Amino acid sequence: MTDTARARRTRPEGFPENGPAPELIRSGFELENADAAFLHHGLNLADVAHVLDLSRRGLVPPEACRTLLALLLEVVDIAPEEFPYDPVHGEPYNSRERYFVSRIGDTAGWLHAGRPRREAARIALRLHLRRQLARLVVDTVAAGLTMVDRAEEHAETLLPDQTYLQQAQPSTFGHYLLSFAYSVVRDSRRLLDELGWISRSPGGAGCVNGTRLLDDRDPIADALGFDDVIPHTRDAMWQVDALIHVLASTASLLSNFSKLAEDLEIFSSSEFDFVDLADGYSRSSILMPQKRNPYALAIIRGASGVMIGRLTGFLAVTKSPSARSDNLIFAYGEVPRALDLAQRITTLTGGVVATLSVNAERMRDELDRGYTQATDLAEHLVQRLGVDYRSAYVVVGNTVRQAARDGVPGSAITGEMVDAQALRHTGRSWGLAGTDLSAVLDPQQIVATRRAEGGAAPDAVAAMVRDLRADLGTLADEASARLAAFETVEADLLGRARDALRT
Hints:
By secondary structure, the protein is mainly alpha-helical. The protein contains 20 helices and eight strands.
């Protein structure tokens, strides 16, 4: 190519004159239009708020304003699946633009005054997510309260609690369940924090540095019920960190439920037989008539893995240069679907716990034949004899080993057995022959000694139950209040639009 030819060459500028390639439609726009249902309601509200703001500023002629509002209010009543979203025209916003132009011509162009299409989509996503987050908190709190109720019911139901799937110490099923309820409280608080981040408006941010048409961004935020505006215009258009936090919090929530589901799957096995799932949460084998599979637990565990994958996948997508569409193209579907999955699994977990049968006798049998009393026996020796814990630990461990070989359960260990191992380890008897160790070795009395805050004693569990109910109630009230506020502000916005038609 000559220098003259190089000088004459110009890059293509302006919008494309031809339609999208079929491959782009199939691989891009079809996927984006599949997400239209998540954005439809929010896009309608964003458009109405924008038109009212333009009217307030005197930027849009009154007749054009009324024409736009009349059409938008008509579209508000159209279900997303009935609106003519078509990937042939591009992403969902393009279908809306095409529809509006077909109805009212160039008057529809006022919707673009001072606002790119991505701003409308960003607002719509936040409007959708804030409802999902608030509802998820309500459902999460309900699941947590179910755990608390069952924990109170089983505050004195003895359980051989475990670490590494090995029997550890005597506890209660109620105390065990409360460990998951506390995680629910933390996850619910995190979700409400995410709601605070989501409830900030990108409205009026333009593409990267705002627009000369809108000198104040607060009216859009107020009209849509956002708590505040995102202060930096470029950040407002392209930030994704809040979405990462949403996915991380939902992954944490389902991870907590997955831990419980893993435990219950083991506990419900014929080898453990500690619990039974209700029929509605179980499934039969098509081949083996005796099988009773805890199918709901597999769903919970699998969903946790899916959520971790979505978080990881979204992180990979967003690790790109700033101000790139790939940061958010997939967010419009991935984040709402993740929250929908989290809500489904949360209600499923609550149902499993609410209907769970607990086999108290079986768990007590395991306590009676095992050696979960060993720690308490060692601590008793420290208190009574003043020996160091390491010596007590070795002597009791050797006592348990010999008892297991002789077929003696932990509750039947005697002072003579301890003395024999003390003599062997320390070279002297500890003088325990004839000592009654039954109170030290009784699982029920062991649990009763755990009176410190957070312990398994009935009074300690009762105190936790009271605190958890209060905490969960506060979280539920806050989430419900946010939902009610969203309903009110959206109704007020549409009411203002209807009033403007009559003026």
